[in-house]
Amino acid sequence: MHDLEAAFGAPVLEAYGMTEAAHQMASNPLPPAARKAGSVGRGTRVGISIRDEKGDPLPTGQPGEICIKGPNVITGYENNPEANATSFFGDWFRTGDQGVLDEHGYLSLTGRLKEMINRGGEKISPREIDEALLSHPAVDQAVAFGVPHKGWGEEVAAVVVLKADVTATEAELVAHCKEKLADFKRPKQIFIATAIPRTATGKIQRRLVAETFAGAAQ
User: Fold this and answer.
1) pLDDT tens, the chain, 218 aa long
2) CATH 2.30.38.10 domain position(s) in the chain
3) Do 16 and 41 touch, CB atoms closer than 8 A?
4) What's the Cα-to-Cα distance from 159 to each of 43, 120, 147, 182, 188, rounded to whole Å?
């Protein structure tokens, strides 16, 4: 972000939106207001609330499901009562994203709830594991995901693509994660690949990655 701002002489603003909100929900403000790297900013005339699994509001700084409401947010899906029954807490729309609000109302995204890894009841954000792997100097791309496990329900695994002309072993990457992550979050198996599976539009989806590599996980 800072490199882009220096190169173009213009502020870079991270924002957050989805079709159901037509389209923007939050954005970092223009100067002189503060723009925070890693945050998608404050609600853009959209109410933002972090809620638990029961729909109760959570305190500032505690992660939970991002819920929104406002005149631009849908009130229901057409001809889909099943989706409507699970997509709202009262008049708050459930985004399916996990995030946290700071004391100034800036929102940070921490993951997709459907992508969370459930290891023996411990909910693990794969994004945290991605970031730990990407901090290794040899890693260019990283995607963590859950694989079935008889004892824990799910276990953590990951796939990485190394940078050109750089080498690293699975053992080295596992050791690196051991320094960065709690033991229950540490991937027990890391696949080193030449490419990570993507959708037809070039996007990385953890579900697709998991389907590709889960069969090879031990």
Assistant:
1) 999 999 999 999 999 999 999 999 999 999 999 999 999 999 999 999 999 999 999 999 999 999 999 999 999 999 999 999 999 999 999 999 999 999 999 999 998 998 999 999 998 999 999 999 999 999 999 999 999 999 999 999 999 999 999 999 999 999 999 999 999 999 999 999 999 988 888 888 888 899 888 776 65
2) 2-110
3) yes
4) 34, 22, 12, 19, 11
Angle between helices 170-180 and 126-134 (to 10 degrees): 110
Structure tokens at 196: 């990570």
Instruction: Give the distance, in angstroms, between the CA of residue 99 and the centroid of all CA atoms in the same chain.
Output: 8
| Single pTM value for the model | 0.79
The domain defined by 2-110 carries CATH number 2.30.38.10: yes
The CATH number given to 116-216 is 3.30.300.30
Query: Could you give the CA distance from residue 74 to residue 92 in angstroms, rounded to a whole number?
Result: 10
CA dist., res. 46 & res. 210, Å (int): 34
Segments of the chain assigned to CATH 3.30.300.30? 116-216
Please name the residues in contact with 33: beta carbons below 8 A apart, sequence gap of 6 or more: none
- Helices within 47-183 (DSSP H only): 81-86, 126-134, 170-180
Q: From CA 40, how far away is CA 108, in angstroms rounded?
A: 6
